[in-house]
């Protein structure tokens, strides 16, 4: 793409690699150049925390606010009751109101770290689409909104087509999701003058639906912009690890565990991730990403420190780096390692080493733990575990025990 943007926001995100597609680059750039623009990203409340897979778009909203515009984080209190079918092979489990409210609170705690919320012209707004979706009158909604949607066109969207091609069930409930998301965009435009919806490239069809619906019903021009769906250079989906999702909530993943995820970035991804997930100048990102040999490890530490500082604070990043140095360079325990605290009741007559690996987050399942043990990849207090069937009693755990999975993942097990 050869378009040269005038607005600071578009120039910044193009240079840093945030853009996959946009409905109208030039018209959006013009709007961004002439005043404060309001944009939103939606988050369905399906878990108690956002995870690393959300972080690219959270950083996009952060840059949007830093360059003088107003972000909206839209919580899907209404749409979570249905579930987004985009690129899923099955239907999402349905949550009740209490679970949705609890999840929204957990997600909001993360968003507060990245965005400034308030009443000012560029302060972020936290909204909930249940405010307008829960009260919809079904017949009136079908008549006023539903008539603008072509089933033929909806069936052509890749997110729907892929499910049907695999002969996997797509419920009528899920099929309505894209109509409701389009309605969200129009409603935000009516209520808050929102001109832009942003999201991952898997949301392109849903975003375009909102642009089209608003043009048809309100005769207003609004825009959509998507970010690339990231995979690591070795082909893994960004944000996934052997232990599962990389959560952004401290209660679900320690700052050290979060820091270590970024420290383990493959060499080829360092420069790209510095541009996307930190605020370091692009020139410095390129310089760090081009380092070779052992020097690239210093760039990975910079990446881990900067990303962790944005989420958990500078002190947490420094503590994580100090712990890593203690563990890896000196063979010590480290004060900031993730901790598993067990009660005497948890241990009973004894607890297996495989169970401890799973409960400490070092293995995703008992099967994975047993494979780790039989292949010699697990250690206790830095010594290989010779017996995969090892049982530990209360006496064995009377002092903290350091468990390791491979060379880079560690945890402390102790009795509380």
From TrEMBL:
L-tyrosine binds at residues 40, 177, 181. It comes from the Bacteria. GO terms for cellular component: cytosol. Coiled coil: none annotated. Its EC number is 6.1.1.1. One of its GO terms (molecular function) is ATP binding. It catalyses: tRNA(Tyr) + L-tyrosine + ATP = L-tyrosyl-tRNA(Tyr) + AMP + diphosphate + H(+). A motif ('HIGH' region) lies at residues 45-54. Its main location: cytoplasm. GO terms for biological process: tyrosyl-tRNA aminoacylation. The keyword S-adenosyl-L-methionine does not apply. It is found in: Cytoplasm. PROSITE patterns: S4. A motif ('KMSKS' region) lies at residues 237-241. SUPFAM superfamilies: Alpha-L RNA-binding motif, Nucleotidylyl transferase. Homodimer. PANTHER family: TYROSINE--TRNA LIGASE, MITOCHONDRIAL, TYROSYL-TRNA SYNTHETASE. This is Tyrosine--tRNA ligase. It comes from Pseudoroseicyclus aestuarii. The gene is tyrS.
